[in-house]
Write a structure and sequence with these properties.
Blueprint (H helix, E strand, L loop, with lengths): L7 H10 L6 E10 L2 E11 L4 E5 L6 H8 L7 E6 L10 H4 E4 L11 H11 L4 H10 L15 H13 L5 E5 L7 H16 L3 E5 L3 H7 L2 E6 L2 E7 H6 L4 E5 L3 H8 L5 E6 L2 E5 L3 H11 L5 E5 L3 H9 L11 H6 L3 H12 L1
Parallel strand pairs: 3-7, 3-8, 5-6, 6-7
Antiparallel strand pairs: 1-2, 1-4, 8-9, 10-12, 10-13, 11-12
Bound molecules: adenosine-5'-triphosphate.
Amino acid sequence: MQRASCDTEHTDARTKDAGTRAMIEATALTKRYGAKTAVHDVSFAVRPGQVTGFLGPNGAGKSTTMRMIMGLDRPTSGRVTVNGLPYAQHRSPLHEVGALLEAKAVHTGRSARNHLRAIAATHGIPNRRVDEVIDLTGLHAVAGKRVGGFSLGMGQRLGLAAALLGDPATLILDEPVNGLDPEGVLWVRGFVRQLAAEGRTVLLSSHLMSEMALTADHIIVIGKGRVIADASVADIVASTQTFVRVRSPRAAELARRLGQADVTVTEVDPGLIEVRGLTADAIGDAALGLGVALHELTTVQGSLEDAYMNLTRDEVEYRTTVDPGAAAGAAGATGADAGLEAVAR
Ligand SMILES: Nc1ncnc2c1ncn2[C@@H]1O[C@H](COP(=O)(O)OP(=O)(O)OP(=O)(O)O)[C@@H](O)[C@H]1O
């Protein structure tokens, strides 16, 4: 993939900087709407050179926080800076931070190229840069087409192209893969990772946990306006409980014999149990001692999704009748994501 930058010197400086200086910094950030506190005393730092996922159930305060980062909403108290200054105090904000806040195509009769040229013109950005971002986002073949006729995927590429016009070091992307087909999701994932690899700071929100696990390096989770987790994806996943999946024609009998203090055995199906509190070795030895045949003995590490469900179980503002435990346990990433959405909405 072509570098998502037009300024090599600039980018090399950024890469050297990566991991050292926080580019988005929130300090005791609070936003109240009348009696409603949407964001409560939130502090976090988003660092360059990695993708930081911003997660939380619906109504948790993500959009409000993103709006305050972008200067679209004023904090009630506290502050948030981008590259050291509140957004509104930057002389050329488009060169500091690019944002994709709306997940829909712009409805306009203009061509993609003219749409981008219009934005560029109002920010003193040369047309040369418009052509560069068109190439970077793979829009070349449709650059002359009316934006109003764009698919959601093309609309997202156009939104990313607009966000990149000022070659900003910081990008804020709200649900960039929402509604995209698998090819579009794959493209956005690769693109976002490339932007971070260049040393840029990328803050990305998504409800798709399986996608976040593949895209983000670091995760900030908010619930009911407060930060409830701020850690690397690896650390968050490592904090989830592992369990051992055991398949046996005599699973029920094995379950009874394994049951003891600090061991939890869940019967998933006749013939399939999940054991927490014992290693696979211990279960295998116990089965051998009992003369019970095992058809499967697998240690399963919890997923980012499991960790997220545990973290946000008490933080969901609008709960449906779907049981979060059942949703988290749903088989396969897609099924579990669907369950998560049902809980979080
Ligand atoms: N302009 C407003 N006036 C009053 N309340 C608001 C306003 N904007 C947001 N809120 C409330 O603040 C809380 C946080 O909303 P916000 O949109 O930031 O959440 P979110 O995490 O982005 O949710 P979603 O995932 O649904 O986009 C919600 O309870 C919401 O109803």
